[in-house]
Amino acid sequence: MADSWEKSIAFFLAEDLGRGDATTRAVVCGGEKGRAALIAREAMIVCGLDVVRAVFAFLDPDVEWKPRFDEGGRVSAGDRLAELAGRAAPILGAERVALNLLQRMCGIATATRRYVDAVEGTGCRILDTRKTAPGLRVFDKRAVAAGGGKNHRFGLDDGILIKDNHLAVAGSACEAVARAKRSASALLKIEVEVENERQLQEALASGADALLIDNRTPAELAALVAVARRMRPEVPLEASGGIHLENVRAYAETGVDFVSIGALTHSVVAADISLEMDLA
Amino acid sequence: MADSWEKSIAFFLAEDLGRGDATTRAVVCGGEKGRAALIAREAMIVCGLDVVRAVFAFLDPDVEWKPRFDEGGRVSAGDRLAELAGRAAPILGAERVALNLLQRMCGIATATRRYVDAVEGTGCRILDTRKTAPGLRVFDKRAVAAGGGKNHRFGLDDGILIKDNHLAVAGSACEAVARAKRSASALLKIEVEVENERQLQEALASGADALLIDNRTPAELAALVAVARRMRPEVPLEASGGIHLENVRAYAETGVDFVSIGALTHSVVAADISLEMDLA
Amino acid sequence: MADSWEKSIAFFLAEDLGRGDATTRAVVCGGEKGRAALIAREAMIVCGLDVVRAVFAFLDPDVEWKPRFDEGGRVSAGDRLAELAGRAAPILGAERVALNLLQRMCGIATATRRYVDAVEGTGCRILDTRKTAPGLRVFDKRAVAAGGGKNHRFGLDDGILIKDNHLAVAGSACEAVARAKRSASALLKIEVEVENERQLQEALASGADALLIDNRTPAELAALVAVARRMRPEVPLEASGGIHLENVRAYAETGVDFVSIGALTHSVVAADISLEMDLA
Amino acid sequence: MADSWEKSIAFFLAEDLGRGDATTRAVVCGGEKGRAALIAREAMIVCGLDVVRAVFAFLDPDVEWKPRFDEGGRVSAGDRLAELAGRAAPILGAERVALNLLQRMCGIATATRRYVDAVEGTGCRILDTRKTAPGLRVFDKRAVAAGGGKNHRFGLDDGILIKDNHLAVAGSACEAVARAKRSASALLKIEVEVENERQLQEALASGADALLIDNRTPAELAALVAVARRMRPEVPLEASGGIHLENVRAYAETGVDFVSIGALTHSVVAADISLEMDLA
Amino acid sequence: MADSWEKSIAFFLAEDLGRGDATTRAVVCGGEKGRAALIAREAMIVCGLDVVRAVFAFLDPDVEWKPRFDEGGRVSAGDRLAELAGRAAPILGAERVALNLLQRMCGIATATRRYVDAVEGTGCRILDTRKTAPGLRVFDKRAVAAGGGKNHRFGLDDGILIKDNHLAVAGSACEAVARAKRSASALLKIEVEVENERQLQEALASGADALLIDNRTPAELAALVAVARRMRPEVPLEASGGIHLENVRAYAETGVDFVSIGALTHSVVAADISLEMDLA
Amino acid sequence: MADSWEKSIAFFLAEDLGRGDATTRAVVCGGEKGRAALIAREAMIVCGLDVVRAVFAFLDPDVEWKPRFDEGGRVSAGDRLAELAGRAAPILGAERVALNLLQRMCGIATATRRYVDAVEGTGCRILDTRKTAPGLRVFDKRAVAAGGGKNHRFGLDDGILIKDNHLAVAGSACEAVARAKRSASALLKIEVEVENERQLQEALASGADALLIDNRTPAELAALVAVARRMRPEVPLEASGGIHLENVRAYAETGVDFVSIGALTHSVVAADISLEMDLA
User: Fold this and answer.
1) C271: closest CA among C110, C76, C50?
2) Residue F268 half-sphere exposure, CB side, CA atoms within 13 Å?
3) In angstroms, what separates the C-alpha of E20 from chain B's closest C-alpha?
4) What is the pLDDT of residues C206-238, one digit of tens each?
């Protein structure tokens, strides 16, 4: 919901503004109007223009806003992503937060799109992870979707994912899945992380709804996929660990349903975007 | 103050936990104890172990915590950054937020250290910018300091920086600086962004306390530095724009006091760290 | 996590205390100590003693607390549920909020247990709904679990449940399920509400993960269960609508996996509990 | 003030929505419009339609809203309480919270009206208590007023009510009332709970502004009323304890000014109301 | 409750600290310990030492604190109000907020005591008003009590006070009081502001619980008091308007029960207190 | 930014309203409209009318508002500062908070103007301090500016001011300034408090950006000013301690750039303003 944006945006602006924009307060007399454009300095996938609009509107609800691209659209260097007009002071006060968000979201969407293009035709989908910048998950995950990826869990509460550290505590996958089936909320799926055939068979036998196969080479992965398809063909399979743009297609071609990529959100390269202003 | 950490950490944990850690709640019986270690998977500069401790302590104030390195220390692949012990459930619940923060902070500190090493001996210092991930500025800036960099403004309120967009509104630098000297709070310095000799001379003449020289080649920059030193030798000079690890020393050798690098915080590569757990 | 309790408890106490407990402030001198007991005035299932402890501890972290029963335990009229001791003023200030919460939770747990007992041996489990008192869901749902019931969704985000109003907008169940499979987060199950055989067959064919069969008599329900088991025996079936303590066993004996009962939480009868105090 | 509604409604919606309405997000494309009606499934007293409007308006300020009954109005089974129209997604997202609130408020108003009708002509008024669902007091108390009841204290700060537990600490009623007269805020009345003639006389003699007579039979109560009226006829008298719909008139006819009924708010039966939707 | 202090103190410290105490962070190495004393520079009534302790404890829960005077005690110039010891950094960070609060509270208590002394023996009590500094009411009112005054309403919700502006809307006092008796919460008294005999008689006749007689000379006031005592001797009378230290005794001697003084809190002279520090 | 007003105003109104304006709720039927005027009862400098507007608008966004004076304007007794019209209930509910704020701000602006007038022609400017009422700094400081004063730091984070208590911990001014230059944020000036010539020389030699000379007579101050101007003529000098309206000109004529006056904000005399209302 837009509401969670509101709170985040208020928090981000408060972080940057503190007691207020001392420079603008000192050098802008008050009523001056300005026009500005957000300009792409390189090719990218657009994401988050509506978020950026909300940032500017937070400081000035009357700001005029003309987006030039749709969410997920492809943009070339030099393109104007959006134009805005209104009182200069709030535009200047919101500029940095707006750019910081937009550059990150476009950066994520652009990177995701490269992975999605790399696996095109295999039927495999690119998943994100919870390795997002703290406080920015909703924005990071939206950018993955804008780039054509699919979202994995938004948090620890909208899915059960039993990993190695859980098994270190709970004992067997069998026992862990049984406990989860007994007490977890009724509509959550149970996914189990496995690294080898024995674990995979145990997890499938115990009734897991999905499997995460971690840290395998494409060849090892293909063998495990074959085993899983024989046992329970309807169970979705996800691969993770050591997968990057150069080898992602090899992983996708093993027949897994999903490949998850932490770097999409933990190691973001900001897209190059600037805001240019002149008096209205 | 630690207080601002508290609120941020609460926010980050809430983002990840939502209604709670469904997996741990389902598969951990309650009282199990565990031991865990944070392990560096590559060489890095350490930053933020006390923040990570606060993350774990937020969910379990009784967690035991043994850090193995000081802030800013150099770490090798395989080193244990810290060890912790306590109830397994809150450790599992906090793991992802802790890692997301730590990997980002160590990533920033490590990158900063590379820049600082590159300009060693020139007397020039590496500055950060406000191009941080929204909501993470205090952590991003601490990581820069841990890597040997110096912090520029923490927000729009602890310094006056008159940039091109301000001049588009206020008219001349002369007028903008005069306004700032009249009305700004008494202990804030006034820095002016300039791109050429005419702007530089105007800014110095109008009484600016510092200059930011943007988007010049090292040679152009050196010439401007010479002009500035002749006019007002006590005014600190900062360079920015198009500076990266390969050319930063050339910029530093122009005699500027500071070089500011946006990529330190807007394009972070997460340091590779994992948490490994076993039963206590 | 305990954290969400904290906020709720703070909110509940603030609601009752306003500017403070005027009576206690006026008539209690300050340091008087007191002992108190929470006493059951009728037979009940206990639930929420740890929540109540947190209420008292919120106003006085040093309060002594001795619970006498475990969560879910059966209690007779006259039993002491817990004893507490400490400064009299905060105990008096927290008394009403503590009782209001405890009486509601015990009331829900007691009613749930009656339903669970009524279906004993059928294999059918009693589910709750989202028909909880606004702001009290986490407490209401915990009470259902304490009474032996199982929790359905905690909110609109931890499961997909496509109901008649959604179909009025989305068109066919087939289309709605397809959309959900494409874009929903990876680990959420998709349940579809149906009222007749045609809808049931369409929902099963479209790949729903679970079915909610609403407003059928036990005989009609049994017929639909038979159809569903033939088509996709692994799909869990839930019945709802017009089910009460007198007819719940008939519904359970149709072979459905779950029966959900809104009245468990929307029409609660408070358990009769009082707090009695004397000077320490 | 409406403001406190806003915060509560935001809290209630956040509780239900969590990270957002996963079902609607998945199956509704975005712009679809819908019409809906809130329909009474049984006879009831209406209360809280403006609250419900605020719930829907919180998610969509542009929702159209046509209430069909006034606060406190009598409604028959099948009546449409209100109609609404607007974007389908926010209506679906707010539906459950709206119904949970409305069904509770109408349930309380309906029950209160039964008590008010039962004492009609006696001059005795029905009072509520602080035995409300935590977090819902403002709504619960409004529903009592809509049903014709009068509100007792909204919290511990808008009145002094000295009960048995206070006397256990403060000693005599005489001393407690004296303390309250000395230090309490200037415009708060002082009510004292009594159970027998000795206590009643002491409380009246010490200057109490009102009396609460607890746990007496109608005959015992009548005798105490006579004593009180002789001593200080202007002091209002309230009866409580063991009073229900069947015996409330007998209590009212003793001549007390008020009868207070905890069950009005601690044991609510939700009124049966549904929301039906179709495409606009 | 202490809780409302907590929030206010957090707010006050956040106001002063912003992103943190830049000076202390820069010049204090971290672990230095210090001792400090709060020293009265003039004679005063002490108030709020426990509040000040909470301010210091907010930044350092381990600070040692030794108060030297009780609430309401008389202090001479040069007296040490309290001593504290602990880490120097948080003491320096909290110093200004602590002094700002303490100087205000002691200033109010000292001024109140002068008024209380001036009316000694008349039986008349000094009341405060709602003319407090926004956000500081709980502290301002506590200081009045520490100086021997009595508190009037804490807000618009703990008493009914019908003033001229209300009568301009509601029409007659008679109608206004009747409405208040019908719908206001059960334990709130109804006070009516009057300026002449006609208004006074109307207010008493309509059943007001207390009267506020505004803007009369002592002689006029005495005449009105006589009328009121004849009509309803039990009704408390309060005088306000144009009353200061020089004429307050004349007002008190008219026989009114209360005199209220807005200047106690709207025009405060800070008591002169300093904090002196040395290394431990 | 207006945003920080919003939160403060919400807090101030909540403090006064509590559970709501019981009087207005009881005696105003709901829809009555009213007109009101804010009237100056004495001569004053106006400050904060836009803040007051925001207070009324918080409770009723539709209130009509006509300010009659500009910020900083001079007003005579009897002048109408502003007129407003709208629903009577929210105007009555906001009246006290509005007046409390306005009377304080006008009181501060009026006092400041007296100081500013007293030093006219000397070139010396009047500074405020951090001795503001907790929670009201932004309003107190605005009032100083409206009266012609200049603002010193808004908090501990927008300037470095090394005072005696810091030196007690850090040792020499030399060491303290060196530390500050090394680690403080790039655009903060460093001011040092001195009391004698030795301290002054040390502070100037160590590179302080400004000096605060405390507790000197005008003659002593003049001598120190002469020393400072000889050493580093560009360093701004501020005097404080024991300065009041009668001697401020003597201090100003010593040649200092600034005189700071704590009493401007720690000992405010409220300007006399009333709100008068009649039915529209």
Assistant:
1) C110
2) 33
3) 6
4) 999 999 999 999 999 999 999 999 999 989 999
Q: What pLDDT is stored for residue D274 in this prediction?
A: 96
Name the residue among B135, B1, B109 with its Cα closest to residue B47: B109
Instruction: Give the number of other Cβ atoms within 10 Å of residue D66's Cβ.
Output: 11
**Who's near A156: CB < 8 A, 6+ residues apart?**
A130, B16, B17, B18, B20, B21, B22, B23, B24, B93, B96
- Record: contact F170-E104, CB cut-off 8 A: no
Report pLDDT for D272. Answer: 98
Beta strands, E only, chain F: 33-40, 44-45, 64-67, 74-75, 80-87, 125-127, 160-162, 190-194, 210-214, 237-240, 258-260, 273-279
Contacts of F198 (CB under 8 A, 6+ apart): none
Are D63 and D275 in contact, with CB atoms under 8 Å apart? no
Are C159 and D184 a contacting pair at CB < 8 A? no
Q: Residue D25: closest CA among chain A residues belongs to which residue?
A: A1
Nearest alpha carbon to residue C112 among C150, C77, C79: C150
Active site includes F198? no
> What is this model's ipTM?
0.96
Q: Quick one: pLDDT at residue E3?
A: 53
Taking residue F42's Cβ as centre, other Cβ atoms within 10 Å add up to 14
Average pLDDT over all residues of chain B: 94
**In D68-118, at which residue ranges do the beta strands (DSSP E only) sit?**
74-75, 80-87
Confidence of residue B2 (pLDDT cuts 50, 70, 90): very low
> Under 8 Å CB-to-CB from A266, ≥6 apart: which residues?
A129, A131, A132, A133, B100, B103, B104, B270
Q: Yes or no: say if D56 and D84 are a contact pair by the CB < 8 Å rule.
A: yes
CB-based contacts of C121, cutoff 8 Å, min separation 6: none
Above 70 in pLDDT, residue B260?
yes
CA distances from residue E97 to A138, A142, E51, E142 in whole angstroms, order as listed: 38, 43, 11, 18
Distance from CA of residue F137 to its chain's centroid?
A: 7
Residue C86, pLDDT > 80, answer: yes
* Residue B179 contacts residue A26 (beta carbons within 8 Å): yes
Contact A147, A47 (CB under 8 A): yes
Could you give the angle at which helices C2-17 and E2-17 cross, rounded to 10 degrees?
110
Which of the residues A23, A52, A132, A273 would you substitute to probe the B interface, choosing the one with the greatest number of B C-beta atoms within 10 Å?
A23
Sheet of D80-87, strand order: D64-67, D80-87, D33-40, D273-279
**What tokens does B28 get?**
């951990």
Q: Higher pLDDT residue, B3 or C29?
A: C29
- Average of per-residue pLDDT across B154-173: 90
Phi, psi values for residue E214, rounded to 5°: -105, 140
Do the beta carbons of residue C181 and residue A234 sit within 8 Å? Answer: no
Q: What is the pLDDT of residue B1?
A: 41
**Residue pLDDT, tens place only, F43-52:** 999 999 999 9
Measure the CA angle with vertex D143, ends D137 and D149; round to 5°. 105
Please name the residues in contact with E51: beta carbons below 8 A apart, sequence gap of 6 or more.
Answer: E5, E9, E101, E102, E105, E139, E142
Note whether F277 and F99 are within 8 A (CB). no
Cβ atoms within 10 Å, residue F231: 13
Q: Which of B12, B157, B183 sits opposite A19 (nearest CB)?
A: B157
The pLDDT of residue A52 is 97
Rg (CA), chain E: 23
Strand partners, A278: A35
Active site residue F193: yes
Q: Searching chain F, which residue's CA lies closest to the CA of residue A25?
A: F1
Chain C residues in contact with B22 (beta carbon < 8 A)? 158
Residue listed under structure tokens 């929540």: C51
